Amino acid sequence: MNRRERLRASIEGRAVDRPPVCFYEINGYDEKPDDPDPLNIYSHPSWKPALDLAREKTDRIVMRPMPWKNGVTDPVTALRRETREWIEGSLFLTETVEGAGHSFIRRARRDPDVNTWWVLDHYLKDADDLQTWLALMPPSGPPEGEPDEESIRRVERDLGDTGIVMLNVGDPLYWAAKLFDMATFTLVATLEPELFHAALEWRLQTLLPQVEAVARALPGRLWRIVGPEFASPPYLSPRLFREYVTCYDTPIVEAIQKHGGFARIHSHGRLCAILDDIAATGCTGLDPIEPPPQGDVELSWVRERYGRQMTLFGNLEASDLENLETPRFREKIAVALREGTVGEGRGVVLQPSACPYGRVLSDRALRNYEAMVEMVEGM
Fold first, then answer.
1. Predicted TM-score (pTM) above 0.85
2. Looking at the domain covering 3-75+124-377, what would its CATH class be?
3. Up-side HSE of residue 35: CA atoms within 13 Å toward CB?
């Protein structure tokens, strides 16, 4: 099988010659080593062997935001203005949304040697802010714009038989939770359920028509739905997970799968108490299924109970990829491959839970990436 065929068979629940192996965000396609942007960590020569390995050997899953043109996927974008400035070697982003006599500000910092944004201030500080925020939002209705099919088909042509595109969408909880810092989010979601449901309902009504349009225009693709982990234990109770995730993600999953697509739920951390509620959405994929102690379930347990419904992605912890000596990491790989393929089920895609985000990739991480490919190819 070529790499594209192997991935398609895995997500469709058909037999494969061996489990696919994917480096998650690292795909050898999106990273641009020659880009002189000071924020581009992949320009460091330590990354080149890993990028070459991802491009030449892995079953590539290239993530793309839900493609939309002549409009916006998040209505807040139309209300926001932003400024960027470099201060003492770091880039600071300030976003401002104003209306009804209020000014909401979000500030974030990006450092050249770390491939992530650190949020310093969030838009909302309490439940009253959320009430005002919702009053600023435009009424829900048919979205402006249309699916940008060509942007996805172009990537698929570039990948050829080496991989597939995965469409990425944040669910209503993702949109609402990120308006707050984590502590405030958990308080508002727990103590103000009526208000929080109003926020999720508004977001679903604006988001779902776009998901349906893209799923119709680009049928049969793999999708990743992010956001459920905000309601996973210990942040919120399983009851609130059902209310804030299962209720609102189910219609998104249905819209995707109605057109032959495959909806994969993304949720870090503890899964044991919420897996029935994830399965209740009807999704056909799950990641990253972190092993204990980061998670609280073994891969074999998940496969036994949910493997007939879902293709399972992951089970290698990113911190292990970076920190374990390669012989020990090989043991982790062996466990994931054994537990992910035992008995009946749709299959497993071996991948880490995330990727290193420092400018210099360590020799140890590179050797562990190499071990993932070697062990899968040796099956």
1. yes
2. alpha beta
3. 10
